[in-house]
Amino acid sequence: MADTERRTAFKRQVASLFLFLCVWAIGSGTVRYSVPEEMESGSFVANVGKDIGLDLKGLSARRARIVTEDGSQYFQLNGNTGDLFIKEKVDREILCGQIDPCTVQFEIILENPLQSYRTEVRVCDVNDHSPVFLESELQFKIPETTPPGSRFPLESAQDLDVGNYSLQNYSISTNAHFRVYTSEHSDGRKYAELVLDKALDREHQPEVSLLLTAVDGGSPPRSGTAQILVIVLDANDNLPVFSQTIYKAQVLENSPKDYLVVTVSATDLDEGNYGEISYSFSQKS
Protein backbone atom coordinates (compact mmCIF):
# COMPACT_ATOMS: atom_id res chain seq x y z
CA MET A 1 0.00 0.00 0.00
CA ALA A 2 2.80 2.39 0.92
CA ASP A 3 4.67 1.59 -2.31
CA THR A 4 1.56 2.32 -4.34
CA GLU A 5 1.12 5.71 -2.65
CA ARG A 6 4.77 6.61 -3.26
CA ARG A 7 4.48 5.70 -6.96
CA THR A 8 1.33 7.79 -7.28
CA ALA A 9 2.99 10.78 -5.60
CA PHE A 10 6.02 10.43 -7.86
CA LYS A 11 3.83 10.41 -10.99
CA ARG A 12 2.09 13.56 -9.78
CA GLN A 13 5.46 15.28 -9.25
CA VAL A 14 6.63 14.30 -12.74
CA ALA A 15 3.39 15.55 -14.25
CA SER A 16 3.65 18.82 -12.34
CA LEU A 17 7.26 19.30 -13.42
CA PHE A 18 6.39 18.61 -17.07
CA LEU A 19 3.53 21.09 -16.91
CA PHE A 20 5.78 23.72 -15.31
CA LEU A 21 8.44 23.26 -18.03
CA CYS A 22 5.80 23.62 -20.72
CA VAL A 23 4.52 26.82 -19.14
CA TRP A 24 8.10 28.06 -18.97
CA ALA A 25 8.40 27.56 -22.71
CA ILE A 26 5.04 28.96 -23.78
CA GLY A 27 4.70 31.71 -21.19
CA SER A 28 3.00 34.99 -21.92
CA GLY A 29 6.13 37.05 -22.65
CA THR A 30 8.78 38.84 -20.62
CA VAL A 31 8.17 41.73 -18.26
CA ARG A 32 11.21 43.98 -17.79
CA TYR A 33 12.05 46.53 -15.12
CA SER A 34 15.15 48.36 -13.96
CA VAL A 35 16.18 49.53 -10.50
CA PRO A 36 19.32 51.17 -9.12
CA GLU A 37 21.42 48.98 -6.87
CA GLU A 38 21.39 49.41 -3.09
CA MET A 39 17.66 50.28 -2.91
CA GLU A 40 16.35 49.77 0.61
CA SER A 41 14.25 46.74 1.49
CA GLY A 42 10.57 47.55 0.97
CA SER A 43 11.18 49.98 -1.91
CA PHE A 44 8.48 49.93 -4.59
CA VAL A 45 9.52 48.68 -8.05
CA ALA A 46 6.34 48.44 -10.15
CA ASN A 47 2.78 47.16 -10.25
CA VAL A 48 3.13 43.86 -12.08
CA GLY A 49 -0.61 43.18 -12.15
CA LYS A 50 -1.23 46.34 -14.13
CA ASP A 51 1.66 45.64 -16.51
CA ILE A 52 0.43 42.14 -17.38
CA GLY A 53 -3.18 43.28 -17.65
CA LEU A 54 -4.80 41.65 -14.62
CA ASP A 55 -7.26 43.25 -12.22
CA LEU A 56 -6.88 42.92 -8.47
CA LYS A 57 -9.57 40.26 -8.20
CA GLY A 58 -7.80 38.13 -10.80
CA LEU A 59 -4.46 38.41 -9.04
CA SER A 60 -5.83 37.36 -5.68
CA ALA A 61 -7.93 34.52 -7.05
CA ARG A 62 -5.06 33.09 -9.12
CA ARG A 63 -2.52 33.14 -6.28
CA ALA A 64 0.18 35.17 -8.04
CA ARG A 65 3.65 34.41 -6.70
CA ILE A 66 7.35 34.60 -7.58
CA VAL A 67 9.42 31.51 -8.42
CA THR A 68 13.21 31.64 -8.94
CA GLU A 69 15.59 29.02 -10.28
CA ASP A 70 18.15 29.38 -7.49
CA GLY A 71 15.80 30.18 -4.63
CA SER A 72 17.06 33.76 -4.25
CA GLN A 73 14.55 36.25 -2.90
CA TYR A 74 15.62 39.75 -3.93
CA PHE A 75 12.04 40.76 -4.77
CA GLN A 76 8.64 40.26 -3.17
CA LEU A 77 5.22 40.30 -4.84
CA ASN A 78 2.07 41.40 -3.05
CA GLY A 79 -0.44 38.88 -4.37
CA ASN A 80 -3.40 41.12 -3.54
CA THR A 81 -2.24 44.40 -5.10
CA GLY A 82 0.27 43.22 -7.72
CA ASP A 83 2.95 45.52 -6.32
CA LEU A 84 6.55 44.37 -6.68
CA PHE A 85 8.94 45.39 -3.88
CA ILE A 86 12.60 45.07 -3.01
CA LYS A 87 12.84 42.30 -0.42
CA GLU A 88 16.61 42.26 -0.01
CA LYS A 89 19.03 45.08 -0.82
CA VAL A 90 20.92 44.24 -4.03
CA ASP A 91 24.64 44.99 -4.36
CA ARG A 92 25.32 44.89 -8.08
CA GLU A 93 29.05 44.25 -7.63
CA ILE A 94 28.42 41.21 -5.41
CA LEU A 95 25.66 39.90 -7.67
CA CYS A 96 27.33 40.35 -11.06
CA GLY A 97 30.89 41.61 -10.60
CA GLN A 98 32.05 43.23 -13.86
CA ILE A 99 29.21 41.71 -15.92
CA ASP A 100 26.99 44.36 -17.49
CA PRO A 101 24.04 44.41 -17.85
CA CYS A 102 23.30 42.80 -14.49
CA THR A 103 19.85 41.20 -14.33
CA VAL A 104 17.77 39.23 -11.84
CA GLN A 105 15.37 36.81 -13.52
CA PHE A 106 12.34 35.08 -12.07
CA GLU A 107 8.90 33.78 -13.00
CA ILE A 108 5.57 35.18 -11.86
CA ILE A 109 3.24 32.20 -11.66
CA LEU A 110 -0.57 32.43 -11.88
CA GLU A 111 -2.96 29.52 -11.31
CA ASN A 112 -6.39 28.60 -12.75
CA PRO A 113 -5.36 28.59 -15.54
CA LEU A 114 -1.63 28.11 -14.99
CA GLN A 115 0.39 30.90 -16.59
CA SER A 116 3.96 32.08 -16.30
CA TYR A 117 5.36 35.56 -16.92
CA ARG A 118 9.12 35.68 -17.22
CA THR A 119 10.37 38.78 -15.44
CA GLU A 120 13.76 40.50 -15.68
CA VAL A 121 14.89 43.26 -13.37
CA ARG A 122 18.02 45.06 -14.48
CA VAL A 123 20.12 46.22 -11.54
CA CYS A 124 21.72 49.50 -12.62
CA ASP A 125 25.09 50.55 -11.29
CA VAL A 126 25.51 53.60 -9.07
CA ASN A 127 28.86 55.28 -8.55
CA ASP A 128 29.51 53.86 -5.10
CA HIS A 129 33.16 52.84 -5.52
CA SER A 130 36.33 54.87 -6.05
CA PRO A 131 39.34 53.68 -8.07
CA VAL A 132 41.86 52.06 -5.73
CA PHE A 133 45.56 51.28 -6.22
CA LEU A 134 46.69 48.05 -4.57
CA GLU A 135 50.02 49.70 -3.75
CA SER A 136 50.06 53.21 -2.27
CA GLU A 137 53.62 53.86 -3.48
CA LEU A 138 55.17 52.85 -6.80
CA GLN A 139 58.94 53.00 -7.22
CA PHE A 140 61.00 53.13 -10.40
CA LYS A 141 64.78 53.12 -10.80
CA ILE A 142 65.62 54.82 -14.08
CA PRO A 143 69.15 55.51 -15.42
CA GLU A 144 69.79 59.16 -16.15
CA THR A 145 70.89 58.20 -19.68
CA THR A 146 67.40 56.88 -20.53
CA PRO A 147 66.27 58.56 -23.77
CA PRO A 148 63.11 60.72 -23.85
CA GLY A 149 60.10 58.82 -25.16
CA SER A 150 60.83 55.76 -23.03
CA ARG A 151 57.72 54.24 -21.41
CA PHE A 152 57.21 52.47 -18.11
CA PRO A 153 53.98 50.49 -17.42
CA LEU A 154 52.11 51.58 -14.30
CA GLU A 155 50.06 49.43 -11.97
CA SER A 156 46.38 49.71 -12.83
CA ALA A 157 43.86 50.97 -10.31
CA GLN A 158 40.83 48.78 -9.55
CA ASP A 159 37.25 50.08 -9.75
CA LEU A 160 34.33 47.75 -8.97
CA ASP A 161 31.83 49.93 -10.84
CA VAL A 162 31.06 49.42 -14.54
CA GLY A 163 30.30 51.56 -17.59
CA ASN A 164 30.85 55.29 -17.21
CA TYR A 165 31.26 54.83 -13.48
CA SER A 166 34.33 52.65 -13.97
CA LEU A 167 37.90 53.95 -14.22
CA GLN A 168 38.23 56.29 -17.20
CA ASN A 169 41.54 58.14 -17.03
CA TYR A 170 44.89 58.67 -15.30
CA SER A 171 46.84 61.84 -14.62
CA ILE A 172 50.02 62.84 -12.76
CA SER A 173 51.08 65.94 -10.90
CA THR A 174 52.83 68.71 -12.82
CA ASN A 175 56.55 68.06 -13.26
CA ALA A 176 59.44 68.75 -15.63
CA HIS A 177 60.16 65.22 -16.84
CA PHE A 178 57.16 62.89 -17.10
CA ARG A 179 53.63 62.61 -18.44
CA VAL A 180 51.13 59.76 -18.22
CA TYR A 181 49.57 58.03 -21.23
CA THR A 182 46.23 56.21 -20.85
CA SER A 183 45.23 53.47 -23.30
CA GLU A 184 42.23 51.17 -23.60
CA HIS A 185 42.79 47.50 -24.27
CA SER A 186 40.46 45.12 -26.07
CA ASP A 187 38.89 44.08 -22.76
CA GLY A 188 37.74 47.69 -22.20
CA ARG A 189 40.05 48.29 -19.26
CA LYS A 190 42.17 51.42 -19.00
CA TYR A 191 45.94 51.10 -18.61
CA ALA A 192 48.56 53.75 -17.91
CA GLU A 193 52.19 54.24 -18.84
CA LEU A 194 54.70 56.71 -17.45
CA VAL A 195 56.36 58.49 -20.38
CA LEU A 196 59.72 60.27 -20.09
CA ASP A 197 59.45 63.62 -21.89
CA LYS A 198 62.68 65.31 -20.78
CA ALA A 199 66.04 63.70 -20.02
CA LEU A 200 66.92 63.10 -16.38
CA ASP A 201 70.01 64.46 -14.66
CA ARG A 202 70.89 62.73 -11.40
CA GLU A 203 73.35 65.41 -10.37
CA HIS A 204 70.63 68.04 -10.70
CA GLN A 205 67.71 65.99 -9.32
CA PRO A 206 68.43 62.53 -7.87
CA GLU A 207 64.76 61.74 -7.17
CA VAL A 208 61.44 62.73 -8.75
CA SER A 209 58.23 62.49 -6.70
CA LEU A 210 54.91 62.31 -8.54
CA LEU A 211 51.25 61.87 -7.58
CA LEU A 212 49.34 59.45 -9.83
CA THR A 213 45.55 59.92 -9.91
CA ALA A 214 42.94 57.51 -11.31
CA VAL A 215 39.53 59.04 -12.10
CA ASP A 216 36.16 57.45 -12.93
CA GLY A 217 33.39 58.89 -15.12
CA GLY A 218 30.88 59.81 -12.43
CA SER A 219 29.46 63.28 -11.85
CA PRO A 220 31.04 64.31 -9.63
CA PRO A 221 33.89 61.90 -10.36
CA ARG A 222 35.50 59.68 -7.75
CA SER A 223 39.26 59.19 -7.69
CA GLY A 224 42.13 57.35 -6.04
CA THR A 225 45.82 58.21 -5.80
CA ALA A 226 49.24 56.61 -5.45
CA GLN A 227 52.69 58.11 -4.96
CA ILE A 228 55.37 57.53 -7.59
CA LEU A 229 59.02 57.77 -6.58
CA VAL A 230 61.55 57.81 -9.43
CA ILE A 231 65.11 57.14 -8.28
CA VAL A 232 67.53 58.41 -10.91
CA LEU A 233 70.46 56.03 -11.35
CA ASP A 234 73.89 57.50 -11.97
CA ALA A 235 75.82 57.23 -15.21
CA ASN A 236 79.48 58.12 -15.78
CA ASP A 237 78.57 61.37 -17.48
CA ASN A 238 80.84 63.81 -15.64
CA LEU A 239 84.60 64.40 -15.90
CA PRO A 240 86.79 65.03 -12.88
CA VAL A 241 87.48 68.75 -12.46
CA PHE A 242 90.58 70.18 -10.77
CA SER A 243 90.22 72.99 -8.29
CA GLN A 244 92.68 75.02 -10.41
CA THR A 245 93.52 74.94 -14.08
CA ILE A 246 97.22 75.59 -13.39
CA TYR A 247 99.26 74.66 -10.32
CA LYS A 248 102.60 76.47 -9.81
CA ALA A 249 105.32 75.32 -7.45
CA GLN A 250 109.01 75.96 -6.78
CA VAL A 251 111.48 73.21 -5.98
CA LEU A 252 115.02 73.64 -4.69
CA GLU A 253 117.59 71.77 -6.68
CA ASN A 254 118.83 69.91 -3.64
CA SER A 255 115.37 68.83 -2.45
CA PRO A 256 115.37 65.23 -1.21
CA LYS A 257 113.44 62.37 -2.75
CA ASP A 258 109.70 62.28 -1.85
CA TYR A 259 109.76 65.94 -0.95
CA LEU A 260 106.20 67.43 -1.13
CA VAL A 261 106.12 69.87 -4.00
CA VAL A 262 102.43 70.74 -4.39
CA THR A 263 98.97 69.39 -3.51
CA VAL A 264 96.36 69.09 -6.25
CA SER A 265 92.64 68.38 -5.84
CA ALA A 266 89.87 67.30 -8.22
CA THR A 267 86.18 66.46 -7.76
CA ASP A 268 83.69 64.37 -9.75
CA LEU A 269 79.92 64.91 -9.54
CA ASP A 270 79.20 61.23 -10.22
CA GLU A 271 78.71 58.81 -7.34
CA GLY A 272 80.10 55.42 -6.38
CA ASN A 273 82.83 54.04 -8.61
CA TYR A 274 82.04 56.74 -11.15
CA GLY A 275 83.03 59.39 -8.62
CA GLU A 276 86.28 57.86 -7.41
CA ILE A 277 89.39 59.72 -8.59
CA SER A 278 92.97 58.56 -9.05
CA TYR A 279 95.88 60.76 -10.12
CA SER A 280 98.76 60.14 -12.51
CA PHE A 281 101.10 62.01 -14.83
CA SER A 282 100.52 61.72 -18.54
CA GLN A 283 104.27 61.13 -18.95
CA LYS A 284 107.31 60.78 -16.77
CA SER A 285 108.90 64.04 -15.77
**Unreliable stretches:** 4-28
Count of individual helical segments: 4
Intertermini distance: 127 Å
**Strand residue content:** 25-35%
Helix proportion of residues, in percent? Answer: 10-25%
How many structural domains does the protein architecture include? 2
Describe this structure in words.
With 285 residues, the chain is an alpha+beta fold. The chain folds into two domains: 2-124, Cadherins (Immunoglobulin-like); 137-233, Cadherins (Immunoglobulin-like, Sandwich), CATH 2.60.40. Helices cover 14% and strands 33% of the residues. It contains four helices and 16 strands. It has helices at residues 2-26, 48-51, 56-61, 92-96; strands at 30-36, 44-47, 65-67, 75-77, 83-86, 103-110, 115-124, 137-143, 151-153, 167-172, 178-184, 190-196, 207-216, 223-233, 241-242, 266-267. It has a four-stranded mixed β-sheet, covered by helices on one side. The protein starts with a helix and ends in an 18-residue tail after the last strand.
